[in-house]
Amino acid sequence: MKSILNYVGGKFVKGKREFADVNPANGSVIAEVAEADESLVDAAVSAARSALQGPWGRLSVRDRAALLHKIAAGIESRFDCFVAAEVADTGKPITLASKLDVPRAAANFRVFADLIKTAGMESFQTETPDGKTALNYAVRKPLGVVGIITPWNLPILLLTWKVAPALACGNAVVVKPSEETPASATLLAEVMQQAGIPDGVYNVVHGFGPNSAGEFLTRHPDVNAVTFTGESQTGAAIMKTVAATVKPVSFELGGKNAAIVFADCDFEEAVSGISDAAFLNTGQVCLCAERIYVERGIFERFVEALKKKAESLRMGSPLESTTNIGPLISRQHREKVLSYYRLARQEGATTVTGGGVPGFGNDLDGGFYVQPTIYTGLAETVRCVKEEIFGPVCHVAPFDTEEEAVRMANDTKYGLAASIWTSNLKRGHRVAQQMNVGITWVNCWFLRDLRTPFGGVGLSGIGREGGIHSLNFYSDLNNICLRL
Ligand code: NAD
Ligand code: 6OD
After folding, report:
1. In 3D, which of 62, 82, 86, 61 has the Cα closest to residue 72?
2. How does DSSP classify residue 98?
């Protein structure tokens, strides 16, 4: 059986215990994962601290950027290994891992390598009381040791989204990938070694959340900052833990995102866009739209077209190039999603399509599949419309006026993303500005420019990452006031 190891101070390390890494497409155990206990997490933090005092801490920005480019190239040179690791751990279609997850992992390093070289700092020329001049300018310094905790839905994409800017700013990191998807973080350690990243700069500790590697890392007094992507409730728990040692946090959390489809939209484009927004990665993207509001004049036609689209998606083996929908991540997560499917019916939903578990008649029946599902007819107040489900499911409701659509879209404690579908760009702009979210797409969804701010409001997170916003989170500023 394959072993997935921790990576601490440049060495691949076993743990005292192991846990199973399961392939969600058929339920088989594919590897044993070495669990990091508290002393190993402590060793990883110490290794990171030592690395900051070694050659890494003295590298010029240009040399750091060159190393980040080497990491990007290293990911690309092992492209197939990363794709295989992501597919086996998540069950996502091989086409998706090849087009989205792994290319983005490399792009994350390239973008932040280039950005750190050009990022400017503010400066002010100040008049002193005695009529002389002082020059104020800020210098960027690393935060120190950054703890990075990531989820299972886009494992290497989301991990590198944080590791790349943290390293670009000169930090050392200890990452704790999701227990469901440990493989790609350890594979990245091999790339780091080959790229010549000094020992201790990148460390991986495997394990769970509470009373395990996740909590050990966040409460460690020598970790200077914590960046976390995952559920809102977990964010709240981490916030409590880090409060004791007053660390800066960046939180990218859950969502219950809305899409607003106006009657004047490009109909085919909107149906296709909403289908992606609801079902991509089996609905396990924090940006997915679970609430779709459609102008009444096209409501029936839209629901019918979306149903057709959902039913045309091919569920199957993630390894087949024709598969669009893989399994959910785990048996436990499938239980959660199916409990919402049952709840939707109790809450009075009409099932347009789906609502159950597919049968394959082969080993995929041991996997954690559910059908892509569309509901209509729910009240806006019920749990299925209020709570994040994180599966291939959406509820479609009609609206009559722009004001009503905006009100319904904003009626949530979350605030991550929204999409608006209209051929009237003035309206698109007007409505977009009223969305209480961190990211609004008009006539598109999940179209990313990595220089833009990314994050949410309310239960969806704290802070922004992306471009200069990432550099600002992963560095401290020291303002120097130089009297001339
Ligand atoms: P999760 O919160 O259960 O776990 C995320 C990570 O946190 C895992 O590594 C886990 O081991 C760790 N963890 C759990 N409890 C912890 C604790 N008490 N202390 C420290 N670490 C702890 O989330 P998940 O189920 O892996 O991911 C799905 C969730 O993530 C969804 O809510 C989704 O919306 C959200 N998400 C948000 C974004 C975003 O960018 N906003 C991106 C992806 C996923
Ligand atoms: O594209 C990104 O940078 C990003 N952070 C995506 C998050 C997706 C959530 O599942």
Report:
1. 82
2. I
Residue 465: CB atoms within 10 A of its CB come to 23
Question: At 120, is the pLDDT very low, low, confident or very high (cuts 50, 70, 90)?
Answer: confident
Please tell me the distance from the alpha carbon of residue 325 to that of residue 328, in angstroms, as a whole number. Answer: 9
- Counting Cα atoms < 13 Å in the Cβ hemisphere of 408 gives 27
pLDDT per residue as tens digits for the range 177-218: 999 999 999 999 999 999 999 999 999 999 999 999 999 999
Check 86, 180, 215, 252 and give the catalytic one. Answer: 252
**pLDDT higher than threshold 90 for residue 117:** yes
SS3 413: coil
The residue contributing the CA closest to ligand 2 atom 1 is 448
Q: Are strands 2-4 and 28-35 parallel, antiparallel or unpaired?
A: parallel
Coil, strand or helix at 152: coil
Torsion of CA 434, 417, 111, 10, to 10 degrees: 140
Atom of ligand 1 nearest to the CA of 329: 25
Average pLDDT, the chain: 98
Single-letter residue type at 116: I
Mutate to test the pocket of ligand 1, among 149, 160, 388 (most ligand atoms within 8 A of CB): 149
Q: In the chain, what are the domains?
A: 2-253+458-483 (3.40.605.10), 257-442 (3.40.309.10)
Cα of 151 vs centre of ligand 1, distance in Å, is 5
Among 454, 465, 473, name the best residue to mutate to test ligand 2's pocket (greatest count of ligand atoms within 8 A of Cβ).
454
What contacts 464, CB < 8 A, 6 or more positions away? Answer: 438, 453, 454, 455, 473
In this model, does residue 101 exceed pLDDT 90?
Answer: yes
Task: Note if 288 is an active site residue.
Answer: no
What is the distance, to the nearest Å, from the Cα of residue 26 to the centroid of all Cα atoms in its chain?
25
Number of helices (H) and strands (E), helices first, in the chain?
17, 21
Say yes or no to pLDDT of 304 above 90: yes
Ligand 1 neighbour 254 (Cβ under 6 A) = yes
180 in active site: no
Percent of the chain with pLDDT over 70: 100
Averaged over 393-415, what is the pLDDT?
A: 98
Give the closest ligand to the alpha carbon of residue 451: 2
Which pLDDT band, with edges at 50, 70 and 90, does 67 fall under?
very high
For the full predicted model, state whether its pTM sits above 0.85: yes
Q: Which ligand is nearest to the CA of 105?
A: 2
Distance 23 CA to ligand 2 centre (A): 23
d(CA 462, CA 474): 14
